Input
Amino acid sequence: MTKKSVKETLHAKGMEISIYSEDFQNEFISLTDIARYKSDEPNDVIKNWMRNRDTIEF
Output
């Protein structure tokens, strides 16, 4: 039996950010939706975040 993801939407600064949950304890926020706030190319924004030293140390 597979768990079904529940999708909710958070509204911040005029943007819609998706929140996914399978068991209402572990929630995942869409980084792609957050990156769209910075650029029309969210993949490039995420690549830069992943190269950041603070992100790697975290």
